[in-house]
Amino acid sequence: MIKSYATSGMLNARQAQSLLSKLIYSVEGIADCRLDEDTQDILVDILPGTPEGPIDETVERLIDKERHVRLMGSRMYRQSERIAGQEGRPEEIHKLFAENGSVKRGLAVTLTRQIDDLLIGWAQRHGAELRSYPAMIPVATLQKCRYIPTFPQNIHFVSEFPHRLQELEKVRESEDLNALARLSPYALAPAVCFHCYAELSDSRLHEPLVLTARGTCCRHEAAWRLGNHRLNEFSMREVVLFGDAAFIEDERKRFMEEAWDLFEALGLAGRMETASDPFYFSEESGKGQQQMMGNMKYELIVNAGADAGSFSIASFNDMDTSLCKPFGVLDGGANPMHSGCMAFGIDRWVYALLAYYGTDYGKWPPGVRNTLERSRTFQ
Ligand code: AMP
Ligand code: ZN
């Protein structure tokens, strides 16, 4: 059943969009929720058996919170002229990008490797050192940077059974796993760069440092939105910069320029613009404003055509000293280092390429294939 909630007169268009981005993570028992661009109504597809009362109440509360928030729009940094390729038929793509994107086959696997190889070679030309980190991250590391209270909607914790004979015997006898499991000291990493801060914590760096790692990242996405470009578990390559403010800004800009060149060389269409992180609580929306105003975050957004839509495939973040401070990453003068990171969602590059050019690699434009097959040097 589709229920519509009016927001016009209470919220402006940006506030309504912001409300939607929070509502997605604020109610369960729905199959969809979206914004009607013409009326500015929020349309919620409520599953049979789900009580409407709590949803009504949630929408009301969110409207009340969002109406007090002032939001800034994005500023464009680059925009392409070309139009999106649309050779990929969804049913063909889903054979290679199966089970909501969690199972990859054939060309999707090859492209994943090619994209990552390109990014590694590129990072190394910028002097990056290679790293590899686990998929799990200590909860204490995420707490150090207040990730959990800031983005609670994203987190997947790891559970375990206590190593006690009596408890393990109960596991054999009972199907109520919730009653027997407990949280472990680990979560599944929502990004790669937190591992770098943990590695460097309480150390002094006397010169700039660039690290790169690819990791499996997990974010708790709403089940009804999973698939195509939105996965619960995805592959992210990050390049993480440590240095002074000027180093971070210069390198970040260079990466942005080169990412745009790569994007164009692959024949992709879209834009690069200022962005903010999805702060869950309206009370923290000021942080998003600061990010926007200070150009702290840029996103590279691919337009993958009518079926696949538009989505961010990379972000370029200036963290100032906000992460080096809590982790005690200091410069020679004992001041917190500045840092930044560039994060590439590899699955999304693969999905976009399949949507543009289809699943028959032999028919892809030679220029795109050459770019993907460019030789690289690794250490
Ligand atoms: P962020 O840290 O939010 O800027 O994300 C960095 C990059 O990770 C994004 O630009 C996407 O390419 C990728 N990403 C984020 N969330 C997802 C997801 N749920 N599924 C696939 N890729 C994602
Ligand atoms: Zn990062």
Please render the helix and strand layout as text.
Layout: E1 2-5, H1 13-23, E2 30-35, E3 42-46, H2 52-66, E4 76-79, H3 90-96, E5 97-98, E6 103-104, H4 107-125, E7 129-131, E8 136-138, H5 139-144, H6 147-150, E9 157-160, H7 165-173, H8 177-180, E10 182-188, H9 193-200, E11 203-205, E12 209-218, E13 233-243, H10 245-265, E14 270-274, H11 285-293, E15 297-303, H12 305-308, E16 310-320, H13 324-327, E17 329-331, E18 338-345, H14 346-357, H15 366-373
Parallel strand pairs: 7-12, 11-17
Antiparallel strand pairs: 1-3, 2-3, 4-14, 5-6, 8-10, 9-10, 12-13, 13-18, 14-15, 15-16, 16-18
The structure holds adenosine monophosphate and zinc ion.
Short structural summary:
By secondary structure, this protein is an alpha+beta fold. It has helices at 13-23, 52-66, 90-96, 107-125, 139-144, 147-150, 165-173, 177-180, 193-200, 245-265, 285-293, 305-308, 324-327, 346-357, 366-373; strands spanning 2-5, 30-35, 42-46, 76-79, 97-98, 103-104, 129-131, 136-138, 157-160, 182-188, 203-205, 209-218, 233-243, 270-274, 297-303, 310-320, 329-331, 338-345.
